[in-house]
Amino acid sequence: GVSSSSSSGLxxxxxxxxxxxxxxxxxxxxxxxITTLINHKDKPKRSDKTLQAIQRVGQxxxxxxxxxxxxxxxxxxxxxxxxxxMSVACIEARRAGxxxxxxxxxxxxxxxxxDSHITIFTDKTGVVKAARLLLSSVTKVLVLADRIVIKQIxxxxxxxxxxxxQLEKVSSFQEFVQIFSQFGNEMVEFAHLTxxxxxxxxxxxxxxxxxxxxxxxxxxxxxxxxxxxTCLRHPDCESARINKDGVFHRMRLALEQVIDIVTxxxxxxxxxxxxxxxxxxxxxFKNKVEGLxxxxxxxxxxxxxxxxxxxxxxxEDFTDSAYTSHEHREHIxxxxxxxxMELEQLVxxxxxxxxQKTKDLMEDLEVAILKTCQCMNELKREVHxxxxxxxxxxxxxxxxxxxxxxxxxxxxxxxxxxxxxxTCKLSEQKEQLVEMCRLLRHVSGTEPLEITCIHAEDTFQxxxxxxxxxxxxxxxxxxxKIAKENLEVFCEAWESQLSDMSMLLREINDVFEGRxxxxxxxxxxxxxxxxxxxxxxxxxxKLDTEEQAKIAKLGLELHLLTSDVDSETEKWEDQENxxxxxxxxxxxxxxxxxxxxxGEGLLKTTQDLFHQAEIFAAEGMKLASTLQAFSDQVHxxxxxxxxxxxxxxxxxxxxxxxxxxxxxxxxxxxxxxVDACIQxxxxxxxxxxxxxxxxxxLMRKNKAGNGxxxxxxxxxxxxxxxxxxxxxxxxxxxxxxxxxxxxxxANMTFLESK
Length: 754
Prior knowledge:
By secondary structure, this protein is mainly alpha-helical. The protein has helices at 2-8, 21-39, 48-78, 83-103, 124-169, 173-200, 204-233, 238-263, 278-291, 301-319, 326-355, 359-398, 402-413, 416-442, 447-476, 481-512, 545-570, 578-597, 606-632, 638-661, 667-702, 729-732, 738-753.
């Protein structure tokens, strides 16, 4: 049946997660052509023009797949270990492309209805199946090809490591110069490969980690040169050896990290990312607290208390710090105490509301939610102010680079005592800057900025001692040109990290004040019209073309599932059955959500989409209770299976409701929410594809079909069920929920009347 194809289809390829933009972009044209085909499924006006167009697209898909597969096969031949997997995926893709070409071979048909020739008009599930197979096999080919890029990067890293080992052991200048020039070329190749990869990554967090590691490698290449030369010139100098070892060690760590990111070897336990920041802890905590408005049972009070404890534990980084002003410390301690009290109030109001949901108790809960969130916002503002004011002071104080200048001068004088004194000062400065980075990390506001703070902290930690060992070497060999040059290189790295900090501080402040980063693009333009004041709150937003391209594959999967659900519901004799009606309603809504991903249909803005997702989830909950009632009337071995599947429906719909209601700010956050809503809708539809045939089978077995669960007449008496005909989106979207549809139309006339 159709349901089996849906369960074995795209959903099952979870292992084929697309991590790079290039793979995503390659899929875009194919997805749009397949979409065109599937939209032509339901007997369009059969003009010659339409028939030729269908045939053209079908052939274009087949040709494109043919070319694509030829490249895939060539890659397979060159890469032995992927050959088998790649060949299978290529054969699958080619077969699916040919099927599509056969089914769309319609231009020559004088009598499309003739049974002799199966076409897109007579076998719509065939096209859906072929499309699904084509998408998953092409994705597989791309992901396998991507593995080869990863292999190139690993090979390049291995070359760099091998040459580094030679460099470390070299004892003559001549040999060093030869090997270093080879090392330089290999580093350039590695830099190119990893730079392309960095730009291609979709995950902003990984991108930031990659950028940090590559910056280390770039800086270290120069340090490696001068530190090694110093060591060769002064072979018995202990501080020169320490200095050189530090550079090699840091370089190996950075290479390791790049490979970790490229191979995604720590997808879950990203153990090198430090514990969570106060900022993200508060965000998470507030989300959970605000979630109580929708659902009083989705988490335990212990859960909330633990979350608050973790946040308050992190604030000790501020209150214990010698660099936090007395005033900031007092405020943070007061707010921590207040937060505990507010949470106690909240828990008591929440427990009472669980016992009996009276209007008064729900109002008490609402007040407690508002007060708790308000307190957390104040705490966030206070730690932000503490971290950023400390950073601003330190950066202003250290921009003169007094200590570095003094080290260079006293080093050249060979004044060991003075050098020792200034290295102590530099160590103090390093401690201050490291502390500053730790505190800034807590308030950085976005994960990429958080990673940049961790990188900065790391750089100060490592560069401080390296400057000290370089200065000691110079003081011991005051006339050594190379020792002087080496100290310069490390001081320069310190200075450039300090100036990067000023930029980082600006970005952190911008994000906090909503000027940039996540939120910059998001001063959404109100619709034209004179009086826009009361519209600004609406922020109507569509997906831009780049976002549409990103979500096209997910949209298409949703579309294919609506076709599956439609063909399942059409098989039922009793079209008035409640299960069928809920199924059709959900399919209708999912279809309008799919149209939204293409910038079409009745859902005009992201807000409409979220509203639709809520109604879809509510319809799913209704279906779940209908299924429970149905299972009571069934006496069969399959009853257990039905209940098992139906039980999955409730948490899935609840999750979707929570996602749809969560408040987000900023362009990228809104897109992430759209993506999550469509994904969760897809998951519910996949489950629906399994539930419908099961119910239908039980219905036939139990002969309960005669009038069982007859539903009230739908609100549209002339309800016409259409297939997924793209020419009739209005009728498909009838279940958009009549209320919101009316509001929508009212809004549009309201705008025009202004």
